[in-house]
Write a structure and sequence with these properties.
Strand content: over 45%
Radius of gyration: 15 Å
Order of helices and strands: EEEEH
Distance between the termini: 34 Å
Number of helices: 1
Largest sheet: 4 strands, antiparallel
Shape: globular
Number of strands: 4
Oligomer: single chain
Structural class: mainly beta
């Protein structure tokens, strides 16, 4: 039996706020996406899902809000 190697593509990002502080209005970290910075990694070591909610444009860069709480019951209901 052969094992299948599962891979995922990741897009580079950095914190949009100083020192990665949480947004005081929503309590989530905000990141700036660097779509030219891409990585391929194994899927197995990833601890869990996150949802990247599209944010505002800051100085011409796309931002996102990282939500690490995923309610799978609601997810499956919606999708």
């Amino acid at each position: 039996m052969t094992d299948t190697l599962q891979l995922v593509m990741l897009v580079g990002m950095k914190y949009a706020t100083e020192s990665g502080k949480l947004n005081p209005f929503n309590g989530f970290p905000e990141v700036v996406l660097n779509e030219q910075d891409r990585y391929v990694a194994e899927l197995e070591p990833i601890e869990g899902p996150v949802h990247l909610q599209e944010g505002e444009k800051i100085q011409g860069n796309n931002t996102g809000i990282v939500n690490s709480y995923i309610d799978l019951e609601i997810y499956y209901y919606v999708y």
